[in-house]
Amino acid sequence: MNKEDFVIGKPLPETICDKHGRMLLREGFIIKNSKQLKFVCELFDSVIEKQPDKKETLQEKAGDKDKKDNVLSNVRENMAQLDKVLRKFDDAGTSGNIIKSLETSISKISTNDCGFTGNIEDVARKIAETCTIDEDMALSCIVLQHNFNYALTHSMHVALMCEVVTRFLGWENTERFYTLCAALTMNISMFALQNKLQNKEGALTDDEVKTVRRHPQLGVLILKKLGVTNPIWLKSVLQHHESEDGSGYPGGLSGDTIGRQAKILKLADIYCARVSGRKYRKPLASDTAIQKIFKENDPTIDTKLAMALIKCIGLYLPGTFVRLSNGEIAIVTHRSSKIHQPIVHTVMDSSGLQIHVPKMRMTNCSPYEIAEVLPSHEYSYTMMEKLWQDCNRVKIYELKRKHERVRTCMEALISDADGQEALGTIINLSQSGCCIKIPNNTEMVPEINKVLLLSIPDAGDSLDKPIAAILRRVTNTNDYYYTGVEFMDLKPQQSRIVKCLLLNAVG
Ligand SMILES: [Fe+2]
Hints:
Layout: E1 16-17, E2 23-25, H1 34-47, H2 54-86, H3 98-108, H4 116-133, H5 135-144, H6 150-168, H7 173-185, H8 191-198, H9 206-225, H10 231-239, H11 260-275, H12 286-295, H13 303-313, E3 321-324, E4 329-334, E5 343-348, E6 354-362, E7 370-373, H14 384-404, E8 406-416, E9 421-429, E10 433-439, E11 451-455, E12 467-476, E13 480-487, H15 492-506
Antiparallel strand pairs: 1-2, 3-4, 3-7, 4-5, 5-6, 8-9, 8-11, 9-10, 10-13, 11-12, 12-13
Helix pairs in contact: 2-4, 2-14, 3-9, 4-5, 4-6, 4-7, 5-6, 6-7, 6-11, 7-10, 9-10, 10-11
The structure holds fe (ii) ion (FE2).
């Protein structure tokens, strides 16, 4: 494609991408007037030196997709592996005298059975790796993945949450790792009963109560028989139902006599149980689940650790479906520093129609505030991996800019694909992007992911072509939009000019 293909009134024959395959203008975009034609030609000149090899771009995209997809498929694979290791513990205690049946099963377990410890450690290692790829996407599995049997799924969810929270708390690797192993096996002695109780409404029988209250000790017995010797692992399983006020079981321990690993397990256990449904009740929304812990002023939990948990995972767990103030339906994709203002992606418009390309929204600005949490189990979305790619770009963009930017006060003429223009002020600048203050009485409406062209008069004639940029953040105040934009593939000449502007601003 070349510039001759751009004609007023005719749709673009193909999508214009930059060299990384990022879409600048979609195929079918109709150039309505001369202003838009000028924008498209300048954008083409600014970014494209040579159209990327289509095959290569598609391959790159497929690679990206695979990597992100891995997080979701990794968790599914981990679950299948866990199922294989733990399935044999899923048939005891479903009928008759449960404790007796369990004790018989335990006596049948041979010491160091089939490399059990190594297998669980292997699953734990893979969960940790999955969280390294993308914590937010891994956390989304707690809301989105419920296809396996309840007991196993619950253990996996608790493990994912423990890993993310203990990373947040800065625990060292060994402690984190064995807390993860404990999360996967904390209910090993009552998987079958746990699955049965999941669907049971009403009071437990005496036998069931006895089993529930003994499951931490029986769990440790089983683990020891299977060759587990690590003290953190065993102690955490033994103590995961102890309570801060001494009302828990089996030891009635309180306060500091309970290990912090067991306390985290307990919190993650309560939270994950609340956000998953039962046959007789629907899952609680993630904000309700976490608020309940505090509203109830629960004396059984460690308040400091609970505060850390809420700070780490936020009010809205990634994967949660929400309705925004403007009526759009979105999925929470990324936690932010504000627990009540995550980053979301709109997947349906206000009339409930699915949006082909999800739009990223910052819920800290109008009209994208979260208005309502929706029952996530009643919604589905099939292109999850797409949602996390943009968020990662934002994270990278923010990190890069935080370290490099300098204050400036330069004029910038901004134009967009709708033919709108605005005169703004660049208030800070870095090699990768800038923040532009734009009066909000102009016609231009800044939207996340919008492609812009910036002309900077201060750069003089040396900047012969405008700089192409993508809008990454918008904050709206009474008089101004504050927009964070990321430069796209600066050409060497443009890159040198930005460096000069930076030096002038510093000097
Ligand atoms: Fe338990």
